[in-house]
Amino acid sequence: MENVVSLVDVVKTYIMGDNEVRALRGVSFDIEQGEFVSIMGPSGSGKSTCMNMIGCLDRPTSGIVKINGRETAKMNEKELSVLRNQTIGFVFQQYHLISSMNVIENVMLPLKYQKVEKSLRYERAEEVLEAVGLTERIHHKPNELSGGQKQRVAIARAMITKPKILLADEPTGALDSETGKQVMEMFRMINGEQNTTVIIVTHDPRIGESTKRCIRILDGQIVE
Ligand SMILES: Nc1ncnc2c1ncn2[C@@H]1O[C@H](COP(=O)(O)OP(=O)(O)O)[C@@H](O)[C@H]1O
Ligand SMILES: [Mg+2]
């Protein structure tokens, strides 16, 4: 199996005035194409820092981060943003939808950045919105939706570019537990049907235990 994510002895140190914050202290793991995996740990353990490495939003202080076979430390900002846009779909705790746009406009947006023609964008958006069960809501604004529906819009927007990796930071953090379960079901379905690698970052053990593999992180180190 091909590794889509590979971290080898990754250290990330933030400089805060005279202080150094060692957010990652030598983290190593591999994630294969098609895995459904969580990265779990308490607040401050380094999860978001780890996600920023995998999401090509930041580069390590030392160590090797390879995404889709490419070492991010050796790439410039432009190359990183291309890798990010073509390979990774992001889902966040607070959805990050654009409130002035309706559902389908939000979902089409990543394809606009890829300069895909409008009728094709619309068609693709309809498809992914059907897959997340929101066909009836395409002309609604985000503030007319429930939390679970907003997160499904965010998932559809992340999936419209057919990313190899779907990366979600606390995607159920703002939802009640029943809605959170439904959102996790959606990730499971995407993983199963499309072989998308799904990586869920969470502090919640129930979410961590519901994925096929759970990587546990504590104080910037992998503990299990
Ligand atoms: N941009 C930053 N500048 C300085 N310190 C940071 C920054 N981002 C995170 N940290 C610190 O790094 C550690 C890990 O943070 P983070 O990766 O956000 O953990 P988690 O997502 O698990 O809560 C924490 O001590 C946090 O305060
Ligand atoms: Mg975090």
Polypeptide structure, described:
This protein has a single domain (36-59, 84-222), classed as Rossmann fold (3-Layer(aba) Sandwich). Helix content is 36%, strand content 29%. The chain has helices at 47-54, 77-87, 103-113, 118-131, 147-159, 177-194, 205-209; strands at 3-16, 19-32, 36-40, 62-67, 70-71, 88-92, 165-169, 197-202, 213-218, 221-222. The strands form 2 sheets. The chain has a 6-stranded mixed beta sheet with strand order 6-7-8-3-9-10, sandwiched between helices. Strands 2-1-4-5 form a 4-stranded antiparallel beta sheet. A hairpin with a 2-residue loop joins strand 4 and strand 5. The mean pLDDT is 94. Adenosine-5'-diphosphate (ADP) is lined by residues 14, 16, 21, 23, 41, 43-49. Adenosine-5'-diphosphate is lined by residues 14, 16, 21, 23, 41, 43-49.
List the main descriptive attributes of the protein structure presented here.
single chain; 224 residues; alpha/beta; Rossmann fold; 4-stranded antiparallel sheet; 7 helices; binds adenosine-5'-diphosphate; binds magnesium ion
CATH class: Alpha Beta
Q: Write out the CATH superfamily name.
A: P-loop containing nucleotide triphosphate hydrolases
Biggest sheet descriptor: 6 strands, mixed
Q: Supply the number of structural domains.
A: 1
Oligomer: single chain
Number of helices: 7
End-to-end CA span: 22 Å
Number of strands: 10
- Secondary structure: helix percent: 25-40%
Return Rg in Å: 17 Å
The coarse overall form would be globular
Average per-residue pLDDT, rounded, comes to: 94
As residue ranges, the low-confidence spans are: none
**Which molecules are bound in this entry?**
adenosine-5'-diphosphate, magnesium ion
Order of helices and strands: EEEHEEHEHHHEHEHEE
Q: What name does CATH use for the topology?
A: Rossmann fold
